[in-house]
Design a protein that fits this description.
Chain A has 342 residues and is α/β, with parallel strands linked by helices. Chain A has helices spanning 2-19, 44-59, 73-81, 97-106, 133-147, 162-182, 207-219, 232-243, 257-260, 276-288, 320-335; strands spanning 29-33, 62-66, 88-92, 111-115, 126-131, 152-157, 187-189, 191-192, 197-198, 224-228, 249-254, 268-274, 295-299, 306-308. Chain B has 16 helices and no strands. The chains are: A alpha/beta (342), B mainly alpha (378). At the A-B interface, helix 1, strand 2 and helix 3 of A face helix 2, helix 3, helix 4, helix 11 and helix 13 of B.
């Protein structure tokens, strides 16, 4: 081992000598720990990282990220970002709640922000970024119910955690609202908002699962499916692409997946946007101009923290009447006249 | 006792490489060192091929070194990552010695971890001096029992342990998913699959929090050192160990010598599983303090590499595990400092294994590093 260490040391020293001085000290560094699924998942992690990228472009800051490959990585990843190199550490994902809390309490001088987790009571050096995703998903549910030809739509999630299931809640309630309004009987498969139980892949990685789950829903008659499972949904999109969009359409989540999953963009009816990029950038801004304060930010339809993406290829396919109804409902949710509780 | 000769010829070569009869200094020390160097060089070429510039490559290797041994925190992370790899690797090494190619460490880690976490949260108020050893023991016993299923299948029916352990891995994943959804197991107030937290009396205490609260190194390191000594003693100083090795080297001769092959197979698998189960217990009691889906995180598969790299010798496994722990901890730093993908570390690890598995290739690349073949005969 001694030998090995010396040799490795030698190699590294030689490399250092060869390539001259190493790190360039930027004035401000924002660091991000992604959840499992990877930073290029065309959705959740990618959207959050886009917030840092936007700040890099706008403010010339330095951005660093660490991908979590398993839940066991959270703490280790946080650990390697501690030690003063980062002005703010942004953790992405509800499942990182415990690890972020522990790190924040052990390092009170380090500023943190976490996507999808709100601490109660709040921690002075952590900003929790949460989203009223059910508002946007409600619109998507209404739209899907209106667009479905089979009268069956479906959804499934990654893991049964609140930031995932709020999508599914909103989707189901939106479809129910459509039934109420139109006297139709559109069924939503995959989630029961009362029992809080439904279809889950239990991971945020397997594209195969995304394909299988969408196939199962399709076999049960669903012609529009909303996968809420990060990159897993890309597998569902691949299936929809093969079957053809007249048979199966996909509702994207987190990012406008028409833009992020460019190879299969034709299958996305719309996407339920969760603008983590905007909130992440806002947190970075607040650290930079010293207005950072621990607490919670909530993204809503009203402040554009959540929303419905454009229909893109389906722009002509969605009836004008349905479009205007969705606009009305959006206004109704914002002014409180429409309750999205079901 | 079934006819195992056909099967044995299939895996004999692989096992021979995994568990060499006579330890040769060059094979044990020089080849791994050169393999690491070649892997780093080829890794650099891979980075170049993916349009990473030379400065970044230099910076990333410096980060690799810094992140693995460059500070107390790095050393603590390296050791923390190494502990489960060494424990599971010891189990696999023991299996290799006994002629068993056990792919099931992953499943044994999961089952061991489940048992340890259940004991860990079930007895609040128990003094730690009883609770902690009990939780560790539960992990070892559960892992051992789980692995001995494969051993029993092999001994009783001749089902090859490679197949049965892989299948047992798959079963363990689903078992974990299922158990994490049970109400008595699931954490209160959560609907997602996560177990209750281990109570402090069953936690492997962190050792260095007085220096810096972020240091994660925990008492599992003593378990690891103890296991290395125990396996060394078991393999080389006891009758059972001799029987393991004899069955691995030549099952027929062992049988003619009156050794009970079936018993040895089951016993070796159980011991291997117990060590893997201990690795799982170590993760839930020392690192995570709860069980989550996929807490095994591929350790069981990395441990195969560790056992092969360590040439199935307890001391070799210890160093191989430390190297892999260092690569893991350093890999994170590489990603942070140089923005190089963590996948590259996986590539470098794989390259190391490739080059170690091909000693002739390494000898050909570095002819000056080895004695001439003629000299080696002496």
């Amino acid at each position: 081992m001694l030998n090995k260490g010396r040799l490795m040391g030698g190699v590294a020293v030689a490399t250092a000598l060869l390539f001259g001085s190493i790190s360039s000290a930027a004035a401000f560094t924002a660091c991000q720990v992604t959840d499992t699924g990877g930073i290029d998942d065309a959705g959740f992690n990618q959207t959050a990282w886009k917030g840092v990228q936007d700040a890099m472009e706008a403010k010339g800051i330095e951005g660093r990220f660490l991908e979590s490959q398993a839940e066991t990585d959270y703490e280790a990843n946080l650990n390697s970002l501690l030690g003063g190199a980062c002005d703010v550490i942004i953790t992405v994902g509800f499942l990182m709640g415990d690890a972020t809390k522990a790190a924040a309490e052990a390092n009170p001088d380090q500023k943190f922000s976490i996507v999808d987790f709100a601490y109660d009571p709040t921690i002075p050096n952590v900003v929790g970024q949460v989203f009223a995703t059910e508002q946007a998903a409600f619109l998507a549910g209404y739209l899907a119910a209106g667009m479905s030809e089979t009268g069956v739509i479906g959804t499934f999630g990654g893991i049964n955690i609140p930031p995932v299931t709020v999508f599914m809640d909103g989707f189901v309630h939106g479809a129910e609202y459509y039934n109420e309004k139109k006297g139709t009987d559109v069924t939503v498969l995959g989630w029961d908002p009362e029992d809080k139980d439904g279809l889950f892949t239990n991971n945020f990685e397997s594209l195969d699962d995304g394909r299988t789950f969408a196939q199962n829903l399709y076999d049960e008659g669903a012609d529009i499916v909303m996968p809420v499972a990060g990159p897993v949904g890309l597998g569902s999109a691949a299936l929809a692409d093969e079957l053809g969009t007249d048979k199966l359409k996909i509702v994207g989540v987190d990012a406008d997946q028409y833009m992020t999953d460019t190879e299969k963009q034709n299958v996305y009816l719309t996407s339920v946007l969760k603008r983590m990029d905007a909130t992440v950038q806002a947190v970075i801004d607040s650290v930079m101009d010293d207005t950072f304060e621990g607490g919670v930010t909530v993204g809503t339809l009203e402040n554009d923290g959540v929303g419905l993406a454009p229909f893109h290829d389906f722009e002509d396919a969605v009836p004008a009447e349905l479009k205007s109804e969705i606009e009305e409902i959006k206004a109704g949710i914002i002014d409180g006249s429409i309750s999205i509780g079901g | 006792m079934t006819d195992t000769s056909n099967r044995d010829t299939l895996t004999a070569k692989l096992l021979q490489r995994a568990a060499p009869g006579r330890a040769e200094f060059e094979d044990l020390v020089i080849v791994p060192i050169f393999a690491v160097i070649v892997a780093l060089i080829v890794g650099a070429l891979v980075m170049l091929a993916t349009a990473v510039d030379i400065q970044t490559i230099g910076r990333s290797y410096l980060a690799l070194l810094q992140g693995s041994v460059g500070s107390i925190n790095s050393l603590s992370e390296t050791l923390t990552s190494a502990i489960p790899l060494v424990l599971a690797g010891l189990g696999l090494a023991l299996g290799f010695r006994a002629g068993l190619f056990n792919i099931g460490a992953e499943g044994q880690i999961i089952v061991g971890g489940i048992a340890a976490v259940i004991v860990g949260f079930s007895f609040p108020g128990m003094p730690w001096i009883i609770h902690l050893p009990l939780a560790l023991l539960a992990g070892a016993v559960a892992g051992g029992l789980y692995a001995s299923i494969a051993g029993w299948l092999r001994a009783a029916t001749g089902a090859h342990e490679v197949i049965s352990t892989i299948m047992l891995n798959l079963i363990s994943y689903r078992l974990l998913d299922y158990m994490l959804g049970l109400t008595w197991m699931q954490r209160e107030g959560r609907s997602d699959p996560v177990s209750k937290s281990v109570v402090p009396s069953a936690e492997l205490p962190r050792l260095l929090t007085d220096i810096d609260p972020n240091l994660r190194l925990h008492a599992g390191i003593f378990v690891m050192i103890g296991a290395v000594i125990l396996v060394y003693w078991l393999l080389f100083k006891t009758k059972t160990g001799f029987e393991f090795r004899a069955s691995g080297e030549n099952p027929d001769a062992a049988r003619y010598a009156g050794m009970r092959a079936s018993l040895i197979i089951v016993l070796a698998m159980a011991t291997a599983g117990a060590l893997a189960g201990l690795a799982g217990a170590n993760q839930v009691l020392g690192v995570l303090e709860r069980a989550t889906p996929g807490f095994s995180a591929g350790i069981g598969f990395d441990a195969i590499s560790v056992a092969l790299l360590g040439r199935s010798h307890p001391i070799g496994v210890l160093f191989a595990g430390l190297l892999f722990g260092a690569l893991e901890a350093g890999g994170r730093q590489m990603q942070v400092d140089a923005g190089v993908s963590i996948d590259l570390i996986g590539i470098i690890q794989a390259l190391i294994i490739v080059f170690i598995a091909a000693p002739l290739l390494v000898r050909a690349i570095f002819p000056w590093g080895f004695r001439k073949p003629a000299e080696r005969k002496e």
